[in-house]
Amino acid sequence: MEQRKFFLSDSELPRQWYNILADMPSGMEPPLHPGTGKPVGPEDLAAIFPMPLIEQEVSREQFIDIPEEVLEKYAMWRPTPLYRALSLERHLGTPARIYFKNEGVSPAGSHKPTTALAQAYYNKISGTRKITTETGAGQWGSALSMCCALFGLECKVFMVRISYDQKPYRRIMMETWGASCVPSPSPETRAGRGILDENPDSPGSLGIAISEAVEAAVEDEHTKYSLGSVLNHVMLHQTINGLECQRQMAMAGDYPDVIIGCVGGGSNFAGHAFPFVRDKINGRDIDIIAVEPDSCPTITRGPFSYDFGDTVQMTPLLPMHTLGHGFIPAPIHAGGLRYHGMAPTVSQLILDGLIRAEAVPQLETFQAGITFTRTEGFISAPETTHAVAMVIREALKAKEEGKERVILFNWSGHGLVDMAAYEAYLSGRLCNHALPEEEIDRALKDISELPKPKGYRAAVL
Ligand SMILES: Cc1ncc(COP(=O)(O)O)c(C=O)c1O
Q1: Sequential pLDDT tens for the chain (461 residues)
Q2: pTM exceeding 0.85
Q3: How many other C-beta atoms lie within 10 A of the C-beta of residue 157?
Q4: Is the C-beta atom of 394 inside 6 A of ligand 1?
Q5: Which of 211, 212, 401, 446 would bridge 310 by S-S if both were Cys, CB 3.0 to 4.6 A apart?
């Protein structure tokens, strides 16, 4: 019988995170202050983040120790198992060997608690009492709610209105962990009131919810803000995934030719892939693919420029692929992929040619999710089905070419709280939402007055 699962013991949990900034071939351009346009310093970020996280954000150290208290709590679900998708391989009749890292085993059901735990810990030791954040479909909000509970912190989540209405169970999960959750835009902040004045029926967006959460943090000295993706320290924490995978692939006696992950702000993809990007920089030949929705094609069609992380223009300007801070994405079910920006590290590695991106339509992702569920059993989060769709494309390509490729992908979360999305798909109520070209022109207008990074690209090459 072929081995299907590869487990590491608690004592094999990696003791350090990997920092890609130490190895980036062309370095990174700095975030800029939204008022002055000058590079932001640690003191500019101190109103919203605790100092240990600011230090990690700018650190160039290659490996950073994971504190003992974080390791002890990581062990509640980490190391996560690596699976061989034998039934999917047989179903597709592919010579490819497919492996997936199961991040759905965390208590909140996705990769998100891996950074939420570290962020809650650093806030706790820095004297923070309350953390505010935004959430799309609710995976991040529920992850942070759980981790705040573990460290005795208050948590307040601004949840994008459309998801708040579509996914009541995620809100109830947050409340069960003791957090409070309000729909965004909300009347509680100036940012929210401004949007509601213009459009009382606004469906909200991650950009708006970030503006609200940042404003709520800035206004109270004991409150800090936490972001679930995009920033360097979030990518750093997630790399424990790829470091575990490297050991588990060695146990399986294989090494990936292809690595795949879905991207919203980039964190699950980065955490899974960055330790292998390091191998690629050191000479390994790996095809590393970030997968996004074609309704929110940030990397595949958006310019690389400086842009705000939020709609109301409160955050620093980040050098990244962007669809413009005013972008309101189509109401696809992969709420966690509906973000206008992309992690600067992921964006820069795209420019450096070390990773590439593909966009897939919504119906293909749900079809792939169903194929995965009916072969491997697990029900994927709608975000995760984007990675599954690309895995199926690559496995079928290997079949066509008669090549024995090894495909590794990040199964970033389960979809057990997303059954309404599956119901809509199964009853034929879902459609594709490819982004019209006018939206790219609008994105370019959004950023036209903003500073341009050295690698500025208005159009995708
Ligand atoms: C299960 C799952 N996968 C992927 C994502 C995308 O986020 P990121 O690109 O930061 O991993 C999310 C975001 O909410 C998610 O919940």
Answers
A1: 999 999 999 999 999 999 999 999 999 999 999 999 999 999 999 999 999 999 999 999 999 999 999 999 999 999 999 999 999 999 999 999 999 999 999 999 999 999 999 999 999 999 999 999 999 989 999 999 999 999 999 999 999 998 899 889 999 999 999 999 999 999 999 999 999 999 999 989 888 999 999 999 999 999 999 999 999 999 999 999 999 999 999 999 999 999 999 999 999 999 999 999 999 999 999 999 999 999 999 999 999 999 999 988 999 999 999 999 999 888 778 888 989 999 999 999 999 999 999 999 999 999 999 999 999 999 999 999 999 999 999 999 999 999 999 999 999 999 999 999 999 999 999 999 999 999 899 888 999 999 999 989 886 64
A2: yes
A3: 28
A4: no
A5: 211
For residues 285 and 416, give the distance between their C-alpha atoms in angstroms, rounded to a whole number. Answer: 36
- What b-and-e string marks burial along 294-313, b requiring 16 or more CB atoms within 10 Å of the CB? bbbbbbbbbbbbbbbbbbbb
AA identity, residue 274: F
- 191 CB within 6 A, ligand 1: no
Q: Is the CB of 110 under 6 A from ligand 1?
A: yes
Establish whether residue 138 lines the binding site of ligand 1, counting it when its CB lies within 6 angstroms of any ligand atom: no
Which residue is listed with tokens 């309704």? Answer: 295
- 278: amino acid identity, one letter: R
H-assigned helices in 177-223: 190-198, 206-218
CB-ligand 1 contact for 264 (6 Å cutoff): yes
Distance 264 CA to ligand 1 centre (A): 6
Give the atom of ligand 1 at the shortest distance from the alpha carbon of 140: 14
Query: CB of 135 closer than 6 A to ligand 1?
Result: no
User: 230 CB less than 6 Å from ligand 1?
Assistant: no
